[in-house]
Amino acid sequence: MATRVILLNKPFGVLSQFTGEPGQRTLAELVKVPHVYAAGRLDADSEGLLLLTDDGHMQNELADPRHKQPKTYVVQVEGSPAEDALAQLRDGVDLKDGRTRPCEAREIAEPEWLWPRTPPVRFRKSIPTAWLEITLTEGRNRQVRRMTAAVGLPTLRLIRAAIGTWTLDGLAPGEWRDGLPPPTVRRAWSTRA
């Protein structure tokens, strides 16, 4: 039996789980595939790539920060990022739960592939916004939001664009497709079968 990996573009307002309180949107309304579970999480107010799998070993490996799976985020922030703020993000930021690992952080143009968010981000004419691309190898709770706030750039919109070599390419919000497990997982699965 082969490992199944599903790449989902999780929309804003959907929990990264299959159950929730009445009225909460969950993965159950988007993915009608039995026995798959999220490998990692995105907050309800974050969007983008979420991996689901039926392989518990792979789920743990992808979610565990010790495996340093790079995760790339596209982030709309309030304000205009100065180079010293970007350097602080790259070097690591002191948060209440300790210093973050060094990461990649750069200012980018608003992505051409970006879809409209429902509801839209509140527009304020007098306050500029900018887009950043941030790649982390750890996954603390609300880490990107806390990091940008710590350098004076509050996050307005957060989209995970990639996990390792998996990307959102071609997936609209709420859409999913099957993907291949990474080679190390495929080898481990084939030796257990």
Topology:
Blueprint: E1 5-10, E2 37-38, E3 47-53, H1 56-63, E4 71-78, H2 83-91, E5 94-95, E6 98-99, E7 104-108, E8 129-136, H3 143-150, E9 155-163, E10 166-167, E11 176-179, H4 183-192
Low-confidence stretches: 185-193
Please tell me the total number of domains: 2
Question: How many helices in DSSP terms?
Answer: 4
CATH H level, superfamily name of the largest domain: Alpha-L RNA-binding motif
CATH class of the largest domain: Alpha Beta
Specify the structural class: alpha+beta
> Could you tell me the mean pLDDT?
89
Number of DSSP E strands: 11
Main sheet specs = 9 strands, mixed
**In CATH terms, what is the architecture of the largest domain?**
2-Layer Sandwich
The end-to-end span amounts to: 7 Å
Question: How would you characterize the overall build of this protein?
Answer:
This protein folds into two domains: 1-66 and 167-193, Alpha-Beta Plaits (2-Layer Sandwich), CATH 3.30.70; 70-163, Alpha-Beta Plaits. The chain contains four helices and eleven strands, in the order βββαβαββββαβββα. The chain has helices at 56-63, 83-91, 143-150, 183-192, and strands at residues 5-10, 37-38, 47-53, 71-78, 94-95, 98-99, 104-108, 129-136, 155-163, 166-167, 176-179. The longest helix has 10 residues, at 183-192.
